[in-house]
Design the sequence.
């Protein structure tokens, strides 16, 4: 079935550096992908909607200059956390919907990426 | 008011118990509804879609009430392996909204 792959699964970076997380739809084309952040014991929080070939749509309170999103192809979206700080340490998850025939509105999630900023 | 609201939980139940979760949504134009399960430190995984007529999958029953704008999930004969956080998801077009999740712990 459809799969969304996310990489890396875990990353540790130094404060002030940038980290890129990739989200790939392996079996279907995704014109829209979604990026979430989840702090321990808290709910998924939508950060932004990534649109292929156009600018991402950010949720209120999410800094677009800090969380750069690029959706250059129908199967790949990237999230770059720029100038990372310890408070950016979190679980980042992407998702995509397979709107192809027979797939209905199924939402698939990547495996998630644990970011630790030290 | 949040767009999607769930029972806050946590729910701590013994094995074999029946437990129900509710989720309300604010947008009456919402089109599709789902229950997802999220295990600790993992990504959410689809548990079941929710259809207007209600649907059942083994020990799990999902119902939708469009007039009152809520969906529910009933788990019968709880197993230890049912311990997880259950998220309701509501979509309209490409827009998706998650509930905060309800944590369930099934104890021996």
Sequence:
């Amino acid at each position: 079935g459809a799969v969304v792959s996310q990489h890396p699964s875990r990353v540790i970076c130094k404060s002030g550096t940038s980290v890129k997380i990739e989200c790939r739809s392996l079996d279907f084309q995704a014109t829209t992908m979604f990026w979430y952040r989840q702090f321990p014991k808290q709910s998924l929080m939508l950060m932004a909607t990534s649109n292929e070939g156009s600018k991402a749509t950010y949720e209120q309170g999410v800094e677009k200059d800090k969380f750069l999103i690029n959706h250059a192809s129908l199967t790949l979206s990237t999230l770059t956390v720029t100038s990372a700080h310890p408070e950016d340490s979190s679980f980042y998850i992407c998702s995509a919907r397979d709107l192809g025939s027979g797939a209905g509105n199924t939402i698939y999630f990547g495996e998630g990426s644990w970011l630790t900023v030290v | 008011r949040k767009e999607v609201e769930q029972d806050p939980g946590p729910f701590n139940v013994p094995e074999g118990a029946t437990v129900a979760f509710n989720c309300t949504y604010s947008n009456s134009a919402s089109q599709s509804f789902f229950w997802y399960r999220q295990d600790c430190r993992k990504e959410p995984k689809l548990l079941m879609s929710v259809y207007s007529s209600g649907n059942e999958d083994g020990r799990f029953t999902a119902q939708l009430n469009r007039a009152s704008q809520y969906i529910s999930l009933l788990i019968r004969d709880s197993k230890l392996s049912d311990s997880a956080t259950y998220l309701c998801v509501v979509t309209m077009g490409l827009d998706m909204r998650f509930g905060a999740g309800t944590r369930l712990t099934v104890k021996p």
Notes: Chain B is about 0% helix and 55% strand.
